[in-house]
């Protein structure tokens, strides 16, 4: 995270959407590499 983002209000809707989108992208890329990781897929 950039220093400016750390100072942002983490309860704001924009920050939560940003965080959730990044989490989905990380899980999706992980599942492309590890197709049989059903535990992570369930977390998505």
TrEMBL record:
Under the heading SUPFAM superfamilies, the entry gives: S15/NS1 RNA-binding domain
Mind telling me which InterPro entries this protein's record contains? Ribosomal_uS15 (IPR000589), Ribosomal_uS15_bac-type (IPR005290), uS15_NS1_RNA-bd_sf (IPR009068)
Task: Identify one Gene Ontology CC term for this UniProt entry.
Answer: ribonucleoprotein complex
Q: Which Pfam families match?
A: Ribosomal_S15
User: Any idea which UniProt keywords this protein has?
Assistant: Ribonucleoprotein, Ribosomal protein
Any one GO MF annotation of this record? structural constituent of ribosome
In the UniProt record, does the keyword Membrane occur? no
Q: Which GO annotations describe the biological process of this protein?
A: translation
Which family does the entry's similarity section mention? Belongs to the universal ribosomal protein uS15 family.
Put simply, this protein is called Small ribosomal subunit protein uS15c
**What is the source species?**
Panicum hallii var. hallii
């Amino acid at each position: 995270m950039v220093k400016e983002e750390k100072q942002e209000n983490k309860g704001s809707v924009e920050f939560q959407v940003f965080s959730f989108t990044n989490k989905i992208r990380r899980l999706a890329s992980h599942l492309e590499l590890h197709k049989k990781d059903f535990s992570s897929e369930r977390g998505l």
